[in-house]
Specification:
Distance between the termini of chain B: 49 Å
Oligomer: heterodimer
Radius of gyration of chain B: 17 Å
CATH architecture of one domain in chain A: Up-down Bundle
CATH topology of one domain in chain A: Four Helix Bundle (Hemerythrin (Met), subunit A)
CATH superfamily of one domain in chain A: NADH-ubiquinone/plastoquinone oxidoreductase chain 6, subunit NuoJ
CATH class of one domain in chain A: Mainly Alpha
Strand content of chain A: under 5%
Radius of gyration of chain A: 24 Å
Shape of chain B: elongated
Number of domains of chain B: 1
Largest sheet of chain A: none
Helix content of chain A: 55-70%
Chain lengths: ~200, ~100
Amino acid sequence: MSAQDVVFVLIAIATGGAALTTVTSKNLVHAALFLAVTLTGIGGVFFVLAADFVALVQLVVYVGAIAVLFLFGLMLTRAPIGREALDSQNRAMGIGISVVLFGVLVTLILQSGSEFAAEASTVGGGGVADIGLAIFSAWVFPFEVASMLLLGALIGAIVLSRRETGESGEETPITAIDVGDPGFEDQPELTTTGRQP
Amino acid sequence: MSPLGPLILAAFLFCVGVYGIIARRNAVLVLMSVELMLNAVNINLVAFNNITHQGDPLVSGQVFALFVIAIAAAEVGVGLAIVLNMFRNRASIDVDDVDLMRW
């Protein structure tokens, strides 16, 4: 067992534990933070596999952007705490399905493991220069499609999350949601700028 | 280094993601579980590229891992926008409550 394998096993245990905590945590913010730990661990796995560039992209995009986006999503929505509020009635079914799926997958992986036994003991291949050459020669069409997809997702997210506004320059009243707050009925109609309409 | 370790780790993370999608009620947590599953696939892609197909001039595994990361970022952006809309309209992001189109 080489040092590489030891490092991989340590990172894998940490990553798997953080992933389990992500889906079982009773606190939403803890779940988001453990998701960040999981994503960092996966970046570490990429480093062990000698995929430096993918590992750095993983750290920048996932840990830097997506984890923060999740935290914002949790902040902007009502976040109940507790197992009853977070887990549905399907827990037993979920455990059953995922355990059976894991068993099937591991059996298949171990069955095909004999084919991998003769493989090279080193990892590597695909430095940053190779990735750049490959993306901008062979994979340039998928690259452009991905850029169009990102543009579409950008516009879609803006359209979905902007408030309905009336005439340009005029704010429409905030859509009030009756969540049972005391005194909700007594308040005058609010506008986004806080003045009377 | 044998590819078995990364493959088993990826299978484990994928199954944890499946459990999260089935068992969680909060829509943001369901999105997190989707992210876990996408990352598991990324580990497989990179492991196969860097262990069993080292001489590949197209670097297919790593390039596709990068594409998957880009698509996952787009998916999270749109998904969270949908969740915010859902919260604004119904004051709840419980996926069990959103059954308007259920048969």
